[in-house]
Structure formats: C-alpha cells, structure tokens
Amino acid sequence: MKITILTTFPEMFTPLHTSMLGRAEKAGILEIREVDIRAYSKNKHHNTDDAPFGGGAGMVMLAQPILDAMHSVTGDDFHGRRIYLGPRGRTLSTAVARELAQEKELVLLCGHYEGVDQRALDTCIDEEISIGDYILTGGELAAMVLTDCVARFIPGVLGSAESPEEESFSDGLLEYPQYTRPRELNGMEVPDVLLSGDHAKIKAWRRIESLRATKRHRPDLLASAELTDKEKRLLEEL
Questions:
Q1: In the chain, helix, strand, coil percent, each to 5?
Q2: Is the peptide bond before 155 cis (omega within 30 degrees of 0)?
Q3: Handedness of CA 13, 2, 149, 27 (dihedral sign)
Q4: Band of the pLDDT at 160, cuts 50, 70, 90?
Q5: pLDDT one-digit tens code per residue, 67-103
Q6: Angle ∠(32,13,42) on CA atoms, nearest 5
Q7: What does the DSSP 8-state code read for residue 225?
Q8: What confidence tens digit (pLDDT) does each residue in 175-203 have?
Q9: What gap in Å lies between CA 196 and CA 123, rounded to an integer?
Q10: pTM of the model
C-alpha cells in the first residue's frame, strides 16, 4: 500500500518510518511519503492560510495549495481514497481500519488552524475521518494514528498474521492479560494454565479473561459484542 500525507509540517512524521512500519517500508510492503503543501502555494510568501471571510478568530487553510498538492500526487488516474482528518467524519475504529487496508493507495490531508477552505474539501476529498471527540492543534498526529492503525492490517506488516485479530477491539472485546519470563517475579506467578501446553484450555482461559477485562474496564463494549449464551451467563457470574 502507498500512503501519501499532505501536510505543512512534514518533519513531524519521522516516527512512521521506524519500528514495524519502517521495516515494512524496507521490505516493499508499505510506502509512506510526506508532501509539503507549502511547496504548492502560489503567493509570494508561500503561506498556506488566510483570514476567514465573515470574520472570526484564527486562520483558514487556503484551497489553492491543497488542490494543487492533491493533483500532483493523484494525477488524473487515481485509484484509492482521499481522506481529510477532521472532526465531522466517522470515527476511526478497527472496522474502518480493516476497510481502508483494502485500498491500494490513501492520501491523507492534515488540516490546521481553524480549518480548511470548504472548496478544497468539496473538490478533492472522498471522506472525512476523526480519531476521537477532542481537539488537536493539527491533523498530523491524527494522520499518524490512522496510518499506524491501517498498516497493521496490511499482510506482512506484522510478524504474525494472527496478531491484529487477537488484540483489543478485534472482536469487540479487550484483550486478555499477557505474560512472559520469568515464571515467578516478586512472589507473583504466571497462571498455571498458560504453562500447561493444553491449547484448548489456554484458549478458554483467554476468552474468559477477555470478558473479565472488558466488563471491568469498558463495559460499554459488551452491548455490541457478539457473545454466545454461555458467555452471557458467564458475564453475570464474573
């Protein structure tokens, strides 16, 4: 997959080229690039914002540099999705990330200041996505979150194909507790079942602990989780 990020602060994206995503880039599985919107500004000072019509505090991002930057990276034969990171869109979730991971290419637009000239959004954006109901100083952090979340569902990015399907929210529940060496630490021991070698018992234990963690920390998730009748009865007993 190719992910292009349109931003006025390309220097912020160094973390995306490290760790698992960096290895995926080196392996040719993933391509992430940042495009500086300022380079496409046609005014003398190469600024990308101006005062809003109608008055009000703050500045608004100009449509012209965004439109030209978008056209430069998509051309006339683009097969992908163009996304604006903003508060009005659907909220990023595991289901949304899975969906976006099926695309061949994504272009992410990072907003700033008081927003983006609506004409740019109407012309060159396919959809708006929010990462939550809170305010950021710009769309760069949101673009990083979306990129990292989507990349995990691209085959080959993670070491194990099962990894993203076993983590929190993959089936509507929180993940079960994890343990590693040593077996005993300061009087605390790893649950015996995890050392038993009985995969059926381990799977059952993990499911129970997943239910327990969800009920304790995010009970709101249980309303939409797909549970068997047995699991529903078990939740009442936990």
A1: 40, 20, 40
A2: no
A3: negative
A4: low
A5: 999 999 999 899 999 999 999 999 999 999 999 999 9
A6: 85
A7: S
A8: 999 999 999 999 999 999 999 999 999 99
A9: 59
A10: 0.90
Which of 31, 159, 34 lies closest to 103 in space, CA to CA?
31
Helix axes 229-237, 199-217, angle to 10 degrees: 60
Compare 163 and 179 and report the one with higher pLDDT.
179
**Which 8-state DSSP code applies to residue 127?**
E
Q: What is the largest CA-CA distance in the chain?
A: 70
Using CB atoms within 10 Å of the CB of residue 190, give its burial: 0 to 12 exposed, 13 to 18 middle, 19+ buried: middle
Three-class secondary structure of residue 222 per DSSP: helix
Nearest by Cα to 110 from 11, 17, 9, 33: 9
Q: Which residue type does 128 have?
A: E
